[in-house]
Structure formats: C-alpha cells, structure tokens
Amino acid sequence: MARSLVIVESPAKAKTILKYLGKGYTVKASVGHVRDLPKSKLGVDEENDFEPTYQILEGKTKVVAELKKAAADADTIFIATDPDREGEAIGWHLAEILGGKTKKSQERIKRVLFNEITPRGVKEGMAHPRAIDKNLVDAQQARRILDRLVGYKLSPLLWDKVRRGLSAGRVQSVALKMICDREDAIEAFVPEEYWTINGRFAANLPPEFLAKLVKIDGKKADIKNEESARGIEKDLAGGSYKVTSVLKKEKKSTPVPPFTTSKLQQAAATRHRLPVKRTMGIAQGLYEGKELGELGTVGLITYMRTDSFRVSDEALEDVRKFIGSQFAPEYLPEKPIVYKSKKDAQDSHEAIRPTSVELTPEKVAKYLQKDELNLYRLIWERFVASQMTAALFDVTDVTIENGRYQFRALGEILKFPGHLAARGVTATPEAEDSAAPEESGNGNTAEAEAEDAALDKQLPPIEQGETLKAVALDTKQNYTQPPPRFTEATLVKTLEENGIGRPSTFAAIIATLSSRDYTDKREGKIHPTALGRLITKQLIGSFADIIEEGYTASLEEQLDEIEAGKLAWVDALKSFSVKFEKDLAKAKIEMPQVKGEGVATDEICEKCNSPMVIKFGRFGEFIACSNYPTCKNTREVKKEGAEEAGGEAAPPQPPCEKCGKEMVMKRGRFGPFVSCSGYPDCKNIRKISKGPKFDPKPTGVPCPNGCGGELFEKTSRRGKIFFGCNSYPKCDFALWNRPIVAPCPVCAAPFVVEKTTKRDGTVRSCNTEGCEYKESMPVAS
Q1: Which CATH class is domain 261-317+346-377?
Q2: What contacts 255, CB < 8 A, 6 or more positions away?
Q3: Distance (Å, rounded) from C-alpha 255 to C-alpha 422?
Q4: Stretch 264-274: mean pLDDT, rounded?
Q5: How many other CB atoms are there within 10 angstroms of residue 594's CB atom?
Q6: Strand runs (DSSP E) across 294-352, as ranges?
C-alpha cells in the first residue's frame, strides 16, 4: 500500500486534514518556518549574486528530525503549506531538506494547495498536485533578502547614531514616515473660521425637517465670520420660505465584492475595533477549523491572505441557491455577479468567504467566541450580499428660497433593501462592559441612535410652490479641521492605496512600530513618538529616495514581476543595492549624532538651569539635563492622553504623600508606574490612579433595585459614559441615560432620566416601565 506524507504549518490544521484524508496518509506540521537566514550575521553573499545561506531555525531541530523520519517511510510527500508566496517558500525549504539528492527522490515531492480546510477543499487540492513554483519562491526570497539588507545595515547605523535596540525596515520605515508626515501636516495646519446656517422647517404635513443654507445670490454660501452670519440671520427673519424645486429620483446602492485581506482588516477595525493583528489571528483560526459539535472540526472560511475578488463556480452556485431559498425572487440577480480584481492581484486563490454558506452565523454562534463570531458574521454577510441585487432608495431633493437665500434638503427612503437584507440586518451591537447596557456611539441605546438617523433623512410630502414655516434657525461657528491621524483601519487603507507592502504584512508592520516605541495609540489614533519622529528625520536626511512611497511601491511591482517570471530576482536586488549602498556610505558620515547628546528642547533644568534634552533609553524616551553627569536630573516625557496599562489615559497624579513633591509617570521593564520626582531622596512609588475622568462620580440617585447602593457615573473600557450601581458586581443595574434627582410627575418614581439628541434636544422621561411621562426641557440661554 502506498504511503503518503502531507506536511502543513500548524498542528490544528494537520489534525483536521488527517480526518478528511483518512487511512494511507500521515500528516505532520512544520510549525511555520523551519529554515531561514542566520540570526547572528547577514547571511547573504553580495559578491556572489546575493547567494543566501540558510540554516535550521533554533528550536526546530527536533521538528525537522521528525519530518525526515516520516519522509523516509513515505512514497509521496505532499507539501500543503499556505497558498501564498510565503507558503510556497516554506514548501521549497521543506523540499530542499527532505528531497534528497537523486532525481527520483525529488520527483516524489508534490505541492498541493488547500484554499479551504473542508472535505471539498482538501479533495480538490489533493486532486491537482503540482511542482513547487520557483517564481513564487524567488519573489519571496527576493523580499526576504531585501528586508535583510535594509534591516541588518540600517539598524546598526541607528544604534551608532541614536541608541542600541532600534530597528529600521524597508516597509516599516515608509509606514512610519507616512505617520510622521501626517503629524507634521496636523501641526502646520492653521484652522480657518466659517459659519453654517441650518433651518428647521414645517410643511403642511409632518414631520419637521432640516435644510442647509447652500447659496447666497446664486453663489456658494461662504460665511467667514460672525458679523456676516448674524446679518444673514437677521435677513432671514423677514420674508417667507417658498419651495422652488422638488426633484425625485431613484438611487441604487450596488453590492460590494467579498472581502480581500486589507478590506477585512479595515472593516473589522471600523465595525468591531479589532486591531489588525488580532483580526488576522482570528481569521487564521477560522480558516484552520473550529469544533462545531456533531459536525466535528470544520474550516469556516477560505484562505485569509488574498487580494483577489475571484470566487469559485461551486461557491457561486451554492450562494445563489441559498439566496433563492431564503429570499424572494427579486433578491437574486439573473446571473452571478463577477467582480474584477486589481491589476496586480495574486489571483491564485479566492476572496475571503465562508466555506459553506449554509453555516450561518446563527448556526455557529454557540461554538465561537465573541470576536470570532463578529469576524465570521462580517465575512458571511459580505459574501452573501455580494451576490444579491441592488438596494433602491427614493431620494427627494428640495430647494427652498427666501429672497436671495437658498436652502437645500435631501430626503432618502429605502424602497427595496436588496443586498442590505443580508448585510448589517443581523449585526447587533455587543455590550462591552459587564455592568453596562448595550453601547452605541454617544451613550444612547443603539435603537434610539438608529431611529434618530432615519428620521433625519425623512421629508414630509412637499409640493413645489408650497410656503414653509421656519421653526428655528441654527447659526453655528465652525473651524476647518486638520487631516485626521491614522487609525489602524485608515493606515491599512493608505498603505494598500500606495502599494506599500502586502496586506499579509500590515499587521506585523503596525505591531513593530508600536513595540519599538515609534508610535503609540491614543483613543484609537496612531501618534508618532519623539523617537519615531527622530528616526524618520534621520532616515529622510540620508535615505529619502529609499523610503519614498513611490519607490517602495515600485519594489513591490518588481516582486510581482519576479512572481510572473518577467524579472530575475538577482537583477532586482542588484538595482536596489547600487542605490542603497551609495546612500548608506553617505549616511555614515552625514547622519547627525544624537546618541549621548539628546534632542534639544525649550525646557530648562530646575536644578542647574541647563537646557533639557530628550534622550532615549531601554524603556523609552525621557527628559534629561544636558549637564550630565554633573547634574543627573531626569523625568518622564508626559504623553498627554497616552494609552497606558489597560488602554486608558493616565491623567495627572496627586502629590507624593511622603514629601509633597510631584509624582511623575515612569516606565520600567514591567510597564508604566508612578514615582516621586524627588528620587533618589524620596523613593515613593504607587499604582497608577485612573484620575477623575475615569473615577466613578455619585449622582445622588438611590439604586432602584433596592440594594442600598447609589447610581454612579462611570466610564466603560472604551471611554463611554454610563450610570451603574456602586455595589457592582453584587448589583448590576445600569443605564445609559443620565438619572436626575427629581420625582416623576406622573407616577411619583424617585428619579427621572435625561437624554439629549440632535433631533429632540434635551428630553426627560420616566425609567419606570409603563409610565408615559416625557417632557422637553428648555435650552439654557
């Protein structure tokens, strides 16, 4: 009987595949890479066509020995590593190690691709074995050597010029430059004042609606100051508002393609605030398989590293059958929708989709953790929606005039949901705090927020020529805003749009920038640290051409050409090396020396009146006296709003209880702590106080559960305000709306609640079920 060995990367994947293959197969896991360039030296012979020297990775000797033993007993070796460049390279290394010297021993090695870890996917992969694709291997090898050349030559330069332990990377440094460029633009931004005027109008029939002043004397309303705004407001108080135009049309919302890697990363960050690294880890687990009760272990999604929109014919047939059985006929297009991938997309595998559309989020919910279910729901809904018909909206565009002033209102009503019936309708906001109710963006319930948004788009029946009543005018001062800082989602989007790196590398790039203390995250926004900005400044001064976005994107295009067999990998490396070595030689002489000297600041040492400088130590940046070692005064750099332990801001601390001096934030090997600024004379340290922003505040309202507790204003993990009992966890009563110490005028309940919305202003109501008390509160003058 023929004996076959199948090699995959992970033990979980190996276990599932063995179940699908059955007898006659042995399945082993390489546990990722088994061979790479040496850690202690460059490992690339630049004088001999960049010949790499590979060695077995530390800790993988035992794994390799087990694979060799299993290979010796096998007639055929199937290498089933992940279906991408990196997986192909891992497979090539395994073939080099296990293949032997003879032609016959080499011929027994086959490459198979599993786009999905399901019986169908494994059967399909095993039915179409092929040889190792050397073009894919060469493209990955070129990337690896490029990164090695940059990392192993630039990093020591930074050690010499700034401090040890720093790193630079071919793609990482470009991403950091983009973050620093954005920060420079924010700092250089000069806000400009402008004013807007919105009117709330009533027609013959309800509801009231909002319209915006858009034109004055036929030109765009460009109101620069309060004097002009108040003059217009005065003019508008006279005259009448007449509807001069009512245009009605139908608007289509077409479905979007199923997810690629970067689009999934962006959606998960936006919808569920999942870091990119966490998203890819969860997706890996969904791809390799989850235990689903009687169904056993099932791979729930196709391979998650892809930039292709392609979907297999079988999957299209399955999803069309599902849509046909679950929705009315008008939800199913006449023929499958085919999405065109980008020009440079690697189309060897499919878009990210569920392996079986019949495994709905509801069916698998009890087997998945919260984040796993959220991500699977995103993928499932997006795939099903991608093969449904367009959603239709009735759009009304109303023009209102009062003399020389023109207002505009847009109304929108969903006419036919189409693909929206699959996308979003099953998504429910998840509670994020065990003592907090379900959270929406502004402290209202999700249902109320959705209702407000829908009503803001509703218009009453309006006829051309109708005269409207102006209920109120809202004249508002505004300022132009600087470009926003990157979130993980927007950074991924920008990297992809600029062709920087590959979606599969984005998680590692973001994680490296954070771990090197080049960036920190505050309220979800990525800020460059002083060290990050210094590194960028140093690199731009000497390597402006190498870390320029366009050049980095051109290198990615060259890697694609290598993969396509259009460019020799050695030629690509030679072209890069000429430019890089020239810049490197120049940088060794001209790059400014910061190590030991620090970066100048405007601050003066309070102990000796010498200038203070920013220095960079093992635990991050700090401020030190330039008169060191005569004066050893140092202190932590204050990062206003920086996310410290637990992801929350660390506010100013109370004075030292031992000597009365200021307590300052410091960072040690185990993270941030608070220490007395009088050190070493006073060695007092304490745990970090979360400060008044996060400390619970009493409301004076007794808990209605009768537990003897009081409702306190609290802050959830994500910084949202809610009101919960101070005897939690014994009592878990909580609500979003602010409790007010005032008896209900209808049912005499001991307190009422208050909510403020854009549509209704401030409204008080009773929290008692069945009580209909509701009252609008006057706006404070």
Answers
A1: mainly alpha
A2: 337, 385, 386, 387, 388, 389, 390, 418, 419, 423
A3: 10
A4: 93
A5: 21
A6: 297-298
Two tokens at 669? 């090997």
pLDDT digits (tens, 9 = 90+) for 3-38: 899 999 888 788 888 888 878 899 999 888 899 999
Other beta carbons less than 10 A from residue 448's beta carbon: 18
Identify the band that residue 164 occupies on the pLDDT scale cut at 50, 70 and 90.
confident
Closest CA to 118 of 302, 283, 284: 302
Q: At what angle do helices 261-272 and 503-515 cross, to 10 degrees?
A: 50
Reported residue count of the chain is 781
User: Kind of pairing, strands 241-253 and 467-479?
Assistant: antiparallel
Q: Which amino acid is at 595?
A: K
Distance separating alpha carbons of residues 28 and 599, to the nearest angstrom = 53
- Alpha carbon distances (Å) from 66 to 6, 32, 93, 481, 706: 13, 15, 15, 60, 65
Cα 148 from Cα 576, distance rounded (Å): 13
Give how far Cα 740 sits from Cα of 341, 365, 734, Å: 56, 39, 14
Q: Which residue(s) pair with 734 in the sheet? A: 724
645-695, pLDDT tens digit by residue?
333 344 566 788 788 888 877 766 545 677 888 887 888 887 665 554 456
324 phi, psi to nearest 5 deg: -65, -30
pTM above 0.85, yes or no: no
**In this structure, which amino acid lies at residue 401?**
E
Cα separation, 781 vs 278, in Å, equals 48
Rg of the chain over Cα atoms, rounded to whole angstroms, equals: 31
Contacts (Cβ under 8 Å, ≥6 apart) of 617: 163
Determine which helix (DSSP H) or strand (DSSP E) holds 322, and give its type and residue range. helix 313-326
Q: Are 736 and 762 in contact (CB under 8 A)?
A: no
Distance (Å, whole) CA 762 – CA 764: 7
CA distance 644 to 95: 46
Closest CA to 179 of 521, 580, 585, 691: 521
Reported CATH class of domain 193-254+393-479: mainly beta
20, 287, 303, 405: which is the annotated catalytic residue?
Answer: 303
What is d(CA 632, CA 240) in angstroms, rounded to the nearest whole number? Answer: 74
β-pairing verdict for 710-715 and 467-479: unpaired
User: How confident is the model over 509-532, as a mean pLDDT?
Assistant: 89
Q: For 194-223, what is each residue's pLDDT tens digit?
A: 999 999 999 999 889 999 999 999 999 999
What are the tokens at 637? Answer: 């750099």
- Average pLDDT over every residue of 240-251: 95
Gap between the Cα atoms of 21 and 15, Å rounded: 10
Asked if 4 and 24 touch (Cβ cutoff 8 Å), the reply is yes
Residue 127: enclosing H or E segment and its boundaries? Answer: helix 119-127
Cis peptide before 729 (omega within 30 of 0): yes
Alpha carbon distance 56, 38 (integer Å) = 9
CATH of domain 4-132: 3.40.50.140
Residue ranges of domains in the chain = 4-132, 142-189+484-590, 193-254+393-479, 261-317+346-377, 599-650+652-686, 697-776
**Cα–Cα distance for residue pair 705/730, rounded to 1 Å:** 11
Closest CA to 259 of 311, 323, 300, 298: 311
- CA 194/CA 224 separation, integer angstroms: 4
Mention the CATH class of domain 142-189+484-590. Answer: mainly alpha
Q: State the distance between the two ends of the chain, measured CA to CA, in whole angstroms.
A: 90
Q: Is 152 a catalytic residue?
A: no
Residues 66 and 191: their CA atoms lie apart, in Å, by 65
CA angle centred on 704, ends 699 and 705, rounded to 5°: 125
Q: Nearest Cα to 756, choosing from 773, 772, 779? A: 779
Question: pLDDT tens digits, residue range 376-399?
Answer: 999 999 999 999 999 999 999 999
Structure tokens at 86: 């990196």
Give the torsion through C-alpha atoms of 79, 81, 87, 92, to 10 deg.
-20
Sign of CA dihedral 54, 60, 65, 71: negative
